[in-house]
Q: What sequence folds into this?
């Protein structure tokens, strides 16, 4: 059974045990000042520099948890093994936006599990932030301002129908996307305003990590925070 540990009204930053970009974590913490360490993500943090409000997971990878608890961090030990530690975080922490660092790269299985959670928890607003790319889920309609020439990839986790697009080199209107047939990698932004409309959940949008501020602006425009 899922238990909500805390509800936040502002974005939160999350750190997982995978590869991450320290500069991007710093930018995340400027926006989501409340930090959540997901199991082994705690090992990326430095006492005196970082302060995780919560340490969450099955805690089989986190080191020296008591040191952090002594500094005021709260510990949430979930013993169930039916979900990943990332999912444990998502069902136990409520926030308008999750800035998730350390969930891409290092291990392919963890990367795929994180991507699958974007679909499974499409009710949540999550930005997966890696060293070179960021990934979000397209919830039917998406509107972004991006620089012309920006690499933009679409990857379906299940069958998704492209209804229309504006501002892309290759239009997606009428295309049935599926992971075993048509995918949408290496598209390109052709005009500063990009709009994408799809039918059915399951479409991931992949952008270079330098587009973080542009993606963040989209969520702000939605008055989430």
A:
């Amino acid at each position: 059974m899922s238990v909500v540990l805390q509800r936040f009204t502002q974005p939160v930053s999350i750190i997982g045990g995978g590869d991450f970009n320290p500069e991007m974590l710093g930018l995340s913490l400027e926006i989501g000042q409340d930090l959540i360490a997901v199991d082994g993500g705690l090992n990326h943090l430095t006492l005196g520099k970082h302060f995780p409000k919560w340490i969450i997971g099955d805690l089989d990878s986190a080191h020296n948890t008591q040191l952090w608890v002594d500094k005021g961090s709260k510990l949430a030990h979930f013993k169930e093994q039916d979900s990943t530690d990332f999912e444990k975080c998502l069902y136990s922490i409520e926030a308008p936006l999750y800035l998730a660092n350390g969930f891409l790269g290092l291990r392919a299985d963890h990367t795929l599990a994180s991507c699958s959670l974007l679909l499974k928890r499409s009710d949540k607003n999550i930005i997966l932030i890696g060293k070179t790319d960021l990934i979000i889920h397209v919830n039917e309609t998406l509107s972004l301002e991006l620089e012309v020439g920006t690499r933009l990839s679409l990857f379906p986790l299940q069958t998704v129908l492209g209804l229309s697009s504006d501002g892309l080199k290759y239009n997606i209107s009428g295309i049935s996307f599926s992971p075993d047939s048509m995918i949408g990698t290496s598209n390109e932004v052709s005009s500063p305003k990009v709009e994408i409309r799809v039918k059915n959940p399951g479409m991931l949008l992949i952008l270079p990590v330098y587009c973080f501020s542009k993606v963040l602006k989209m969520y702000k425009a939605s008055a989430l925070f």
